[in-house]
Amino acid sequence: DSLADAIKAFKLRSGIEAMFRDCKTGGYNLESTSADGQRLMALILLIAIAYTCAVLAGRNSRQMGLQKYIGRLKELNRLHRRHSAFWVGLYGQLWVGAMEFWADLAHDLMRLKPSKLPYFRKGLRAMSLIQSAL
Q1: Where are the transmembrane segments (predicted)?
Q2: Are 30 and 24 within 8 A, CB to CB?
Q3: pTM exceeds 0.70 for this model
Q4: CA 122, CA 126: separation in Å to the nearest integer?
Q5: Who's near 123: CB < 8 A, 6+ residues apart?
Q6: If you average pLDDT over every residue of the chain, what do you get?
Q7: Model confidence over 68-117: pLDDT tens digits?
């Protein structure tokens, strides 16, 4: 009944809205599957498991200070974080996959600019930490 309770309830509501966005057009595109009945229930269960894994990985990545490697931390004049824990977890996994896919090219490019090697090593360290968060 107090202002603090109202603010707490509103924060919970905004978290639920973010989850719906993540499960729909912002992440898994649930509405474009046209699934119904048993297939829809199985898909929702699978998405719930995947969503939980992505959120946990995103939280771990944030706690380890790795979000800056995955996406922008915050924009100027913006009060809230740019990306949810779900987004950080999901794209952290994609970032690691891309680094593994392009590893040979990245190593070749680093040979061309040895002065940038410390930054490359920092990125590789971040990649291994993100993998441990997954």
Answers
A1: 40-58, 84-103
A2: yes
A3: no
A4: 6
A5: 69, 99
A6: 82
A7: 777 766 666 665 567 788 888 888 888 888 888 888 888 888 889 889 88
Q: Which of 94, 31, 84 is nearest to 62 (CA)?
A: 84
One DSSP character per residue, 94-124 reads HHHHHHHHTHHHHHHHHHH-GGGHHHHHHHH
Radius of gyration over every alpha carbon of the chain, rounded to an integer in angstroms:
19
- Per-residue DSSP letters for 12-79? HHHHHHHHHHHHTTTTT-GGGG---HHHHHHHHHHHHHHHHHHHHHHHHHHHTT-HHHHS----TT-S
Q: 78 vs 27, 85, 131, CA distance in Å?
A: 22, 17, 29
**What does the block give as tokens for 77?**
């004049």
Classify burial at 129, counting beta carbons within 10 Å of its beta carbon; exposed 0-12, middle 13-18, buried 19 or more.
Answer: middle
34: alpha, beta or left? (left if phi > 0; alpha if psi -120 to 50):
left
Question: Could you tell me the two tokens for 83?
Answer: 């990306």
